[in-house]
Every structure is written in C-alpha cells, then in structure tokens.
Please model this.
Amino acid sequence: MDNLGDGINYAFFDNHTYVAPKVPTLLSVLSAPKDLVSNQAIYGSNTNTYVLQSGDTIEIVINNEDDNKHPFHLHGHQFQIIARSDAYDDPHHYNPDKADEIPEIPSMRDTVIVEGNGYVVLRFVADNPGVWFFHCHLDFHLEQGLAITLVEAPDVLQSQLPIDSLPADFLSSCKGSDMPVKGNAAGNHHDWLDLAGENLQPLPLPEVHLQLRNG
Ligand SMILES: [Cu+2]
Model:
C-alpha cells in the first residue's frame, strides 16, 4: 500500500496497481488475432495480466509486505493451499526450499487470508479456460488495485466462444457505456502491440532533491 501523491492509497502486485483496461479483457481475448492471443502485452501494462496455458500447473506465491491481512479470492477455480504463514511484525517471504511445509492433503478453497507481513502459496491446474480475476475481497482494497487478471487458455477460449456467438445485449451493454468491444487493452485493433492511450496508474511523484548552499 502506498500513496502516489494524489491522496489515495494504492495497493500493488509487483509494483503494479490494477487499473481496468479500456476493453474488457474477455473481449480482447475473443477479438485478438490468433497469433497474438497468448501475448501478455496486448492485455496492457496495468491490468496485471498473466497468460496461463491449458493444462499447466499454476503456483501463486503472495508475500504480503503490508501489516493488513487480506482475504484473496480466485474466480474460476478452487486452489490448493500449499503454504500459509502466521502474521509477523516484519515481512517474511516464502522460502520454496522448505518443502516440509507442503501438506500431504492440501486444503481446497476459493478464498484464503494472507496474514499481515506473511505469505500464502496456492496451486491449481489451468483446466478452466476463461478470464479470471484474483483479488482481495475487501472492496476498498480492490478499489485500490489489489488484483491480478489470469487469462487462462485464451486459444481454447477463442475456439469455444467465438465473438459472433455473444448475445447482442451483451455487446450493446458495453456500447451503451461507451466501452469498445474489440482491440487490445487500449482499444487498438489495428496494431495490437500499440498500447498508446491505455489506462495507467498515476506515476509516483519524483524524488525531491534539496540543495543547500552556504553563504
Ligand atoms: Cu485487502
């Protein structure tokens, strides 16, 4: 959590706070050219998107560098809880070499609390094509950008759900709210790798340098 200078506290995954794209990510998947649909870049630089390939085993490690605890919720899957720490005063990062922490029969959940300054490690198999949000379930933390997007098996999704098969009222509800229904995260469908104009987080204020002079 950090204040980027505009009075709002932002939350981050790997220094990126989630900012919604101009085109809903599902519609970017469905409208993308086949050779670019698995290219993470088209989904934008502030959507925290990870492209997962069908059948892969996915491990998510969250090291919480915040005093708050967060209930993380994943759409589209029930995950295994591989490791989960206590709360600490100082950040404790997960150590993957401590294999003895892995339970023989892990708990299955779709929500898990990561303790303040602690960690959780989750695993699931990418066997459910879709666009799935993974986010803190406290609404005000979600609002602050504590979310990532998992684009799972986008090639399979494209063939299972052709864009022409979407109901007309689905697309018209986007158009009714001035939301483009095709293109990359910036709404560009001519050059899919051109993200100019995409929605971005506010930049941190530049460092202040004080010059002190004598005399
Ligand atoms: Cu939270």
About this structure: The pocket of copper (II) ion is lined by residues 68, 70, 136, 138, 141, 146 (CB under 6 Å). The first strand starts at residue 2 and ends at 3. The CA atoms of residues 82 and 102 lie 5 Å apart.
